[in-house]
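Example with several molecule types.
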Amino acid sequence: MFLIISLRERTRSGSASATKRDQHHVIFFLIIISRDLVTLSTSCHQPFAAMMQEGLDDGPDFLSEEDRGPRAMNVDLEMDATLQVDISDALSERDKVKFTVHTKSTLPNFKQNEFSVVRQHEEFIWLHDSFIENEDYAGYIIPPAPPRPDFDASREKLQKLGEGEGSMTKEEFTKMKQELEAEYLAIFKKTVAMHEVFLCRVAAHPVLRKDLNFHVFLEYNQDLSVRGKNKKEKLEDFFKNVVKSADGVLVAGVKDVDDFFEHEKTFLLEYHNRVKDASAKCDRMIRSHKNAADDMNRIASSLYTLGTQDSMDLCKFFLKVSELFDKTRKVEARVAADEDLKLADLLKYYLRESQAAKDLLYRRSRALVDYENANKGLDKARAKNRDVLQAETSQQLCCHKFEKISESAKQELIDFKTRRVAAFRKNLVELAELELKHAKGNLQLLQSCVGVLNSNT
Amino acid sequence: SFSFSPTFTFSKFQILSRIPQPASLPALDISTNSNGPKQDSLMDDDPEDLFAGATEEVSLDSPERDVLLSDGPSPAITPITPPTSVIAPRIGHIEEEEGGDSFDVHISVSDPEKTSLSVFKQRDFSVKRRFSDFLGLHSKLASKYLHIGYIVPPAPEKSIVGMTKVKVGKEDQSSNEFVEKRRSALERYLMRTVKHPILLKDPDVLQFLENSELPRAVNTQALSSAGILRMVNKAADAVNKMTIKMNESDAWFEEKQQHFENLDVQLRKLHASVESLVCHRKELSVNTAQFAKSAAMLGNSEDHTALSRALSQLAEVEEKIDQLHQDQANADFYLFSELLGDYVRLITAVKGVFDHRIKTWQKWQDSQVLLLKKREAEAKLQFTNKPDKLQQAKDEIKELEGKVQQGERDFEQISKIIRKEVGRFEKERVKDFKTIIVKYLESLVQTQQQLIKYWEAFLPEAKAIS
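Resulting C-alpha cells for the full complex:
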C-alpha cells in the first residue's frame, strides 16, 4: 500500500522532470503490485487516508464471492485472449475518480501487448456517446454508460459524523466512522466495477471492439481532453431526447410486420418499467435494512455502557448481550450490502440495458419509417417520372440500412436475453447462498449467546 | 415460544407467562454492595411476603401463530409448582363501552388453600374493569404508600390522541395496536402490583381484584381538576427538590441515588434506540412487501419461463420474509422496548421515593429547628414574670418534642422501608431483565431459523434456471 502512495507522490511532485521511461516504470510497478492485490487500493486525500488500513479489513470478504480478473458481475462474457480489458487500479480524489484502464492484447493494431492508461468518468461517457452517434452501430445494443461516481451522500454523512463527534462516546464514534468508511469503500468498489463492466462489454462485442475511438481510449496515454458537455450541448441533448420520446410513441404505435420484433417491443416496454419499479423498491428495502443495523449499533453501545456501570450480576449479562448485538449488527449490515450487490445492482444494470435495447428497437423503427418513406418517394418519382434514379438509390440505401439493422438487432436481442437469464441466475443463486450463509452465522451467534446466558442464571 | 399476531380477536387473547426459575430464587451476591451488617437481613425475603416463592414471567402467545413456529426448539418451560400460591392475572379486552375501554381481568390462583386471604379461595375468577379503574387504583396506592417509602408501580399513561382515535371508532390497524399496547401495559402493571407483598394485602387492591363492580373512579381524567392539581404538585416537588440540601450521613443512600440516576440516563438512551429499531423494522417489513409485489410483476413480464418462475418464487419468499419482519418488530416492541419503558417509569417512582425520604428528613429538621427556637424563647421567658406564657411555652415544647421524636421515627422508618424496597426492586429488575431479554433473543433465534427455511426452499428454484 505505502509503496503505491509513495510512488504516486514521486510522479506527481517530479512530474516536470520525469521522463517517459520513469512513467512507464511507475505504471509497470503499479500493475505488478495491483495484480497481487485482491481488493482495490484506495488512496485518498486527508480524512480517508486511514481508510486504507481499516477499510481493507473488509476487503477479502467483500470480494470473496467475485472472481479475480474482470469483475463481470452482471454479464456473462467469454474470456478472449485477443483483447482483455480491466480496471486494475483506481484513485479517489476530492471530486473525481481516476481509473487505471489496463489492456492486454495480441491484436496487431496496438503498439504493445500490455499497457495502461488513466481515464476519468467523462472520458467513458465520451466513448459511449461516440458509439451512440455512430450510424454504423445503429443495429447494436450499445452497452449502457456507467453512472457517474457519486460520493456526495457518503461524504455528507462523514461530515455530519465529524460535527457530531462531541455528542457521542469514543467507542461509538470509532464504530460509526468505520461503518461510514466501509460504506465509502463499497460505493467506490461499485463504481469501479460498473466502469469495468462497460469496457468489458465493448471488448467482448465483435464489432465494437474494433472501433477506433475505443482503441484510442485504451491506448492514448495522454488526457483525451474531453470536456463535459456545455450548456448548449446539454440543451441539444435534451431536445433530442424529447423528439426521441415523441417519436418513440408514434413508432411504438405502428404494428410491426415481423412477429419477433413485435413481441420484443411489447416485452421490452413492459419489462423496462417493471425493472425500474423493482429497482426502486429494492433500494428502499435495503435502506431500511441498513437503518435497522445502525440502530443495533447504538443498542450495542448503550448496553455496553450499562454493563460497565451496573452493579451485581447484570453487568456480565449486559456486556454479553452488547457483544452479541455488535456481532449480529455486523452480519445484518453485511446482509444489506450483499443484497445491494446481488439484487439492487443487478436490477439497476438491467434497467440500463433494457433501455439500451429499447433504443435499438427505436432506431430500427426509425429506419423502417425512413424505408417506407423512401418507398413512397420512389413511387411518387416513378409516377411523375422525375428524379427516378435518385429516388431509387435513396430507396435502396434505406432498404439496405433497415435490413442490416434488423438482422443485427435480432441477434443482439437474442444475446440480450441469454445474458440476462445467465446474469439473473448467477446473482439469484449467489444471493440465496449469501442469505443462507449469513442467517446461519447469525443463528449460531444468537444460539451460543442464549446458551451462555441461560447457563449463567 | 414467542409469537404475536395483530389480527387476533382481543377477547380470546391469552397472556401466559412462564419463567424458567427454580423454586428458590438465585442467591444474589450483595456482599460487594453492602454498607454494613444491617444489609444482609433486609435482603432476605420478608416473612410477611405471601408469595416469597412466586415466580414471574412475561411472554405473549397467540394460538394462531404457534403453527408456524412450532418447528424450532421451543423455549417454553414446564411450570414448577412453587411452595406457595401463585397469582397470575391475565387481561383480555372486551368491546369498549361509552366512557372508555373495558378489560377482562382473569385471575388464576394456584393452590388457593395455601393463602390466608379470603378472596383467593377460588381457583379462577374474572372481573371486568375499566381503564379508569386501573388509574384509580394506582392513584389510591400512590397516595397511601409512596410517601412512606414503598415503590408503587406506575400505571400506564393516558394518551389523549390514542384514546380519541379509538373512541371515534376507527377500526384500523393502528387503533387495534393501540388497544393491544394498552392491554399489555395494564397486564404488566397489574402483575407488578400483585407481586408486591405489601400492596397485595391492601384492601383497595383486594377490592379491585374481587369486587364485581367498582364505583367509577373520579379524578383520573387527565384534564380534570384533580389531574391539574397533580401536575401542579409535581412541579412544586421538582422545585423543592432543588432547594433542599440534605446532609446525607448514610453512604448507602448516596450511592443508590447515584446508581438510579445513571440507570435512568442509560435506560432512556437504550429505550430510544430500541424504539428506533422497532420503527425501522416495521418500515423494513412494509418495504419488503412492496418489493415482493414488484418482483412478482417483474416475474410476470419476464418471457423466459424458468426465470419467470424463479422471480415469482423470489416474490413469495420476500412476502413471507416481510411477515417475519413484522413479527420481529412486534417482539422488539413488546419484549424489549416495553421492558425498558416500564423500567424508565419505575425508576422515576424509585427516585420519587428517595425524594420523599428527603422531605421526611426536612420535616424532621424543621421541627427540630422549631423546638430549638421555642426552647430559646422559653429560656428568655424564664427571666420575665409571665407564668401563663411560660406554661404555654412549656406545653408547646412538650408537643414539639413529641413531633421531633415522631419525625425521627418517620425518617428511620422510611429509610428502613426504602432499603428493603430497593433490595426487592433490584432483585426483580435483575430477574426481569434477564428473563425478558433472553426471551427476546430467542425470538431473534426463531426469526433466523425461519429465514434459513425460506432461503433453503428458494435456492433450488434459482439453480433450476437454465
